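In line with agreed milestones, the collection of sequences with tokenised folds has grown. One record among many is set out beneath this paragraph:
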Amino acid sequence: MALLIILITCFVIPLATSQTCQTPDDFVAATSPGHVIIGGLFAIHEKMLSSEDYPRRPEIQKCVGFEISIFLQTLAMIHSIEMINNSTLLSGIKLGYEIYDTCTEVTVAMAAALRFLSKFNGSREIVQFNCDYSSYVPRVKAVIGAGYSEITIAVSRMLNLQLMPQVSYESTAEILSDKIRFPSFLRTVPSDFYQTKAMVNLIQKSGWNWIGIIATDDDYGRSALNTFAVQTTANNVCIAFKEVLPAFLSDNTIEVRINETLEKIIAEAQLLDALKNVTFTDEGNSFHFDAHGDMNTGYDVVLWKEIDGHLTITKIAQYDLKNDVFIITDQETKNEFRNLKQIQSKCSKECSPGQMKKTTRSQHICCYECVNCPENHYSNQTDMDHCLLCNNETQWAPVRSTACFEKEVEYLNWNDSFAILLLALSLLGIVFVLAIGIIFTRNLNTPVVKSSGGLLVCYVILLCHFLNFASTGFFIGEPQDFTCKTRQTLFGVSFTLCISCILVKSLKILLAFSFDPKMQNFLKCLYKPIPIIFTCTGIQVVICTIWLIFAAPAVEENVSLPRVILLECEEGSILAFGSMLGYIAILAFICFIFAFKGRKLPANYNEAKFITFGMLIYFIAWITFVPIYATTFGKYLPAVEIIVILISNYGILCCTFFPKCYVILYKQETNTKSAFLKMIYSYSSHSASSLATSHVSLDSTSSNLAGTNPNAGGKPAAWQESKDLQAQAFAHTGRENATSTSKILPRKRISSI
């Protein structure tokens, strides 16, 4: 204690009574001779008085503000050197020291560094400047210090001239790890890079993202501030404010920092290399310098707490530089460390899964609003910067979703109520077809069946209707390549065959009841039933074959809908699809024209009129189909075509066969040969009278032009001819097996019917 009081008196009292201007000797804090001199730089005084002279004179001013903690560090260095000298560690070699008070001022430290570089056994005031310092022997072999990074950086640049080892106990500036600029610098504390890294790690573990920074206005503070700002930004931590304070402030509450200095000094010739390879242990922990000259120590995480007006400092964890983790020793400190998370230090509330951060107009990324993820986007973590996009082809997500969901595959299913209704209508149509077939088979020899073209033609037409109804089943269920190709082809060919047969019937009816000789000759040349049917149907077969070869319908997954995958048949070629339907429409139109011309047939043989109605129903259905099919979207698109097929098929079936079935079942008295011939005779005689009247008009016009001699009681010759024709027609009714009749009465055509 007496020694401590004497040293304090030596450091404080002379400096307090000295003149304002100081010499380098005034800053020698302690010195001791020896074979090997170790320099020391300690900021025993807090600052230097500013000069009141103006302009300022180039002189070193007086230092004020005694720092007891730094003074204790100075004593620790002296004590370590004395222990080495009193031991057998360096036998025959005595260590000396020369310690300077830097007064926390770069200028004073530079003056001391110049003395360190002076030649051994020479004047301390003279420094030699050489090109090569390989053989130069300085008075001081190594330097301990300084504490502040700003002073250390300045001194180290000078000591680099002679590669004099410099070991700092407190300078942590990251730039000092650069061995290109500071090759002889070593330190026993970690770089600020790890300090700021540990701070950011602690902030993250505590769940904070809204912090402020206070740094000192020196190389140490500015470098740490820049490094810390970069690391916080990389970890999504926002800096609310930055405050830079003057570098040197008195703070008597700072915990005493005592550095353990060198414990082994080896031969001076290889001092720097030896220092780099020094390894020592303390309390079971091994310490050494790394390639950057930094010591592999860590940090203590301390918690400042005010309890009953008293400030207490508690160590709650250690930071491991190598593994980048916090080491907690006991449960009590673990709870303290965990309680840090309860401290709220955020600009905005965290966004829950299903939301994303939307930055406000503030300059800080940590100030944001939470907005819901839009449709087909999701977020599965808190505070996500953006929502993740689902795979739109196979997945979907509702608003504010935390995950993506697989899309359901949709098509017109067999279990769908609308599909069941359509199937029921198709089955009902098939039942009608079978019932009509049975009725016609049981009444094969009746005039109604014979007048329909015979059983073969009726069977072909009924078969076509059966296939049309059956084709609707291929539009329902999960689409397959086979069903996609079959459904349109089956419908197209069978419907074309049906229309072709009806076309032949219309042509036959028109031929049978045509009394115009020119039209009769034309229809006779045109009427070739089998070639017409094969040709008309064959063209449709060619169209469908080309369609299947070059652009066949195929299954397609429509992923444009937001929540479902629509499994549908892609027609392959709209042109081919339109050509198939257009060709059927052309045949139907021709059939309509022929049937319309034969609409004024006998009342009980009114098939042409019903064919006309059937074709009208077909046209109405398919003209309506085009705009509806073009604008309908979804799984019910095939149902649109099913409905049109059913309407057109039912229309033609009902108009073609239902009237005949009605006659067969409920008008049996008209379904006899005699009744049929009588009906035909009545129609033919009426047509003959009309034709005779037309001839009479022409003959009368000719007689008037030739100047015929009228007589009051006489009748025109043409009128007499007409009467003769009617008489002959009546005579024909009484003679069923007559072999000749008037030329105007077409008996040959009637018998063919």
In short: Confidence is low (pLDDT under 50) at residues 1-21, 249-269, 694-753.
